[in-house]
Specification:
Length: 264
Amino acid sequence: MTYLRRSNRGPKRARGAAIAAIVALALVFSVNYFFPRAFPSLLYPVSSLFWKSESGIVGWFVYMGKIAQSKYSLVKENRRLSDEIAARDRSILALDALQSENESLKTALGRTGKENHVLGVILSRPPVAPYDTLVVDAGTGDGVKAGDKVYAEGDVLIGDVTEAFGGQSKISLFSTPGRITSVLVGTSTIAAEATGRGGGNFIVKLPAKISVVKGAVITVPSIRSHVFGVVDAVIVDSTGSLQTILFKSPVNISQLRFVEIGRK
């Protein structure tokens, strides 16, 4: 019988690879032992190049992200400032128009009314006085009566006299929470009811189809168009059928020193 001779190339290759690995390890160990700085000096340029390139790429992405965020913030801030400037411009124009209208009416009708006004010094206000209440030093001795209208800074209507005494009067502001006042909204003078929210703030609800913009002037029905407030925000509800108008008095009550009481 003839038997095929089994090939021994596989074991030989395995032994050769093992011997080569042992020799390589011995060589690395010997070089590292006798020349300990050889490998770090050879590997440092490659590793430093890798880390520098990686940090550079990461830094570039971070830098570009910051630029994009800065541009977005700048655009957003510019848009907000533009809206505020436009609203203030509309308010100034509307107030100028009302002032001109008042002067024309008062001249034509001879109803300047200033001779019937009494100047009152504010003695107390919130938080010393009750919320949305003022106490002034003019009273029945000056011809002041309950129901007289109260103005600030000229023609801005802010409240009325609820109680009058000999030398003092108590004034209730129209912004008292829950108090309802008939007003006219915007240049189209849309009739509505404003509800006080306290601190010179009011709220009005109108159909969404009626155009009302931020900065529109709110007045009260009268022979003299008294400024009552300026629209601060317009919010349309989710159904799109109703809008909530938030407005406030152009007068800062906490900084007032005097008011004018219009005697009947």
